[in-house]
Write a structure and sequence with these properties.
CATH topology of the largest domain: Rossmann fold
Order of helices and strands: HEHEHEHEHEHEHEHEHHEHH
Structural class: alpha/beta
Number of strands: 9
Helix content: 40-55%
Strand content: 5-15%
CATH architecture of the largest domain: 3-Layer(aba) Sandwich
Number of helices: 12
Distance between the termini: 9 Å
CATH superfamily of the largest domain: Aspartate/ornithine carbamoyltransferase
CATH class of the largest domain: Alpha Beta
Length: 309
């Protein structure tokens, strides 16, 4: 049984096939690959609010022939003290798979250990692998020019600005090692990647490249990336965070320092005037909505990979 909890769960030698499948699903949407989940029911369990993740997984399961069932955590007995293990065992009797968006990454691990169905990480406070796979695919579409999607990524430089200890930054570190990308994290002192991701990264053969110099980081970059500065659960730290992270906002000046043809990316929702300038969001080099669309196609390919023998 397969799970997708982190970037390295899909073997390197299967990445090319996964991306090729995602490309076909996108090109032939409605006419190709609609039976991978036929006859299956998949739960979508959300402990956090969501727009892109919720809609893309619901539509994706349906378009693969399955039945999606949204499970808001507040409506389940797990919110009243039922154990994760018991919940996992019960849902395993009803469902064929479970997509979970949560706070504590350990909850995903516990579901995968206690249950008997595939678990997909739709976001935890530690990692956001579905987002990063979609982002990497989005870049490969542009760099491959219809050719070798995976090969087009080799050696490309991605710079992540802001809170480099967040889940998206953690996932970029793992993806860098997994896809052969150069990932540079740029943020203020005190926002460096934590010990847990550094330990996991060592097992994947990767390393942390961190700097506090925004301009130097941008030079030679193929893509600039940022995320919100105050994630769900961090609201009490808002004032201090905004002050410390202000110098790491992505501006047009910063984007102009990158390579000609470099792209700007954001996993959304964005907060113009904070982590990114509105003019950058509106710039032709911004591919934020392509990223959002590709969540659907790449997640469908991941689900198909999970259920394939």
């Amino acid at each position: 049984m397969k799970h997708f909890l982190q970037e390295t769960d899909i073997p390197v030698d299967e990445l090319d096939g996964l991306f090729s499948h995602a490309a076909r699903l996108k090109q032939q949407r409605g006419r190709f690959g609609v039976d991978a989940l036929r006859g299956q029911s998949w739960g979508l369990m959300f402990f956090k609010k969501s727009t892109r993740t919720r809609v893309s997984f619901h539509v994706g399961v349906a378009e693969l022939g399955g039945t999606p069932l949204t499970l808001n955590s507040d409506d389940l007995q797990i919110s009243r003290g039922e154990t994760v293990a018991d919940t996992a065992r019960v849902l395993s009797r009803y469902l064929h798979g479970l997509v979970i968006r949560c706070y504590d990454h350990e909850l995903l691990e516990e579901f995968s250990r206690a249950g008997s169905i595939p678990i997909v990480n739709a976001l935890s406070d530690f990692l956001h692998p579905c987002q990063i796979y979609s982002d990497v695919f989005t870049l490969a579409e542009r760099w491959s020019e219809g050719g070798d999607l995976l090969g087009s990524l080799a050696g490309r430089k991605i710079v992540f600005y802001g809170d480099t200890a967040c889940n998206v930054a953690n996932s970029w570190l793992l993806a860098g090692a997994h896809f052969g990308l150069e990932v540079v994290l740029c943020g203020p002192p005190g926002f460096e990647p934590g010990a847990e991701i550094q330990s996991l990264l060592k097992k994947s053969g990767g390393h942390v490249n961190f700097t506090s110099n925004p301009r130097e980081a941008a030079r030679g970059a193929d893509a600039l990336y940022t995320d919100v500065w105050v994630s769900m659960g961090k609201e009490a730290e808002e004032t201090g965070r905004l002050q410390k992270l202000k110098p790491y906002a992505v501006t047009r000046e910063l984007l102009d320092l990158a390579k000609p043809g470099a792209w700007f990316m954001h996993c959304l929702p964005a907060h113009p005037g904070l982590e990114v300038a509105q003019e950058v969001l509106d710039d032709p080099r911004s591919i934020i909505f392509d990223q959002a669309e590709n969540r659907l196609h790449v997640q469908k390919a991941i689900l198909a990979w999970i259920v394939r023998p």
